[in-house]
Amino acid sequence: MDHQNRVGSKTGGGGVASWSESNVDRRERLRKLALETIDLEKDPYYFRNHLGSYECKLCLTLHVNDGSYLAHTQGKKHQTNLARRAARDAKQGATDTQTGLPIGLSGASAIPIRKNILKIGRPGYKITKLRDPVTRQLGFLFQLQYPDIATSAAAEGETEIKPRHRFMSAYEQHREPADRGFQYLLVAAEPYETVAFKLQSREIDRSEGKFWTYWDRDGKVYSMQFFFKGEREERFSGVPGLETVTQYPYVRRE
């Protein structure tokens, strides 16, 4: 196409560039100028992904080239997010003159720094099988010994750490193949290693007198007793309007 006879063109100039061509040329000149003055490698929010695109980790935007990213950094969205981040960092960094803690964090809610404690091995334990003489429910009594249990520093002095327990499903652990027919009882107390006991996957009866724990501070023994629910309780558990009926020994009346 001949551009020599267009208005404003010079002989051999090829005519006046269109608006889109001028815009592309302007962006390219601005990109080269910005690259000479700005080091993108020092930008903490600049990230190049595995696809070759560029991302802004502050605004979570995607750009096809570095020029598009530079134009984004000069925009209103990026500048607003920068101001918000600076205000938040200044607020979090400010400390209260009375407590010496960051503003918004009181002494009661402060999370203590967890220290790396050297584990000294597994505790001794004893397991006793039980069966309720009335309901015929199967249960267990666990007794774990913690003679060298650790202590935690408190405001009034040092207090002894109490062992804790948790029931874990087979799908939460990764040491053995997951089997829906089993569950695990975890008991933890520093500086001892956490021990796990493999149990059948049945619902625990947490009614009064069926489930209890006790920590003997003098003997350093943690006791835990529980019973599994019977077939009737498991089958009708959670059914509205159905109350649990306590089974008593049959007494013949004359």
From TrEMBL:
According to the record, the signal peptide region is none
Q: Where does this protein come from, organism-wise?
A: Saitoella complicata (strain BCRC 22490 / CBS 7301 / JCM 7358 / NBRC 10748 / NRRL Y-17804)
Alphabetized Pfam families for the sequence? SF3A2, zf-met
Q: Where in the cell is it found?
A: Nucleus
Q: Which GO terms describe its molecular function?
A: nucleic acid binding; zinc ion binding
What the entry lists under InterPro entries is as follows: Matrin/U1-C_Znf_C2H2, Matrin/U1-like-C_Znf_C2H2, SF3A2, SF3A2_dom, Znf_C2H2_type
Q: Which family, according to the similarity comment?
A: Belongs to the SF3A2 family.
Keywords on record: Metal-binding, mRNA processing, mRNA splicing, Nucleus, Spliceosome, Zinc, Zinc-finger
One CC-aspect GO term: U2 snRNP
State the protein's name. Matrin-type domain-containing protein
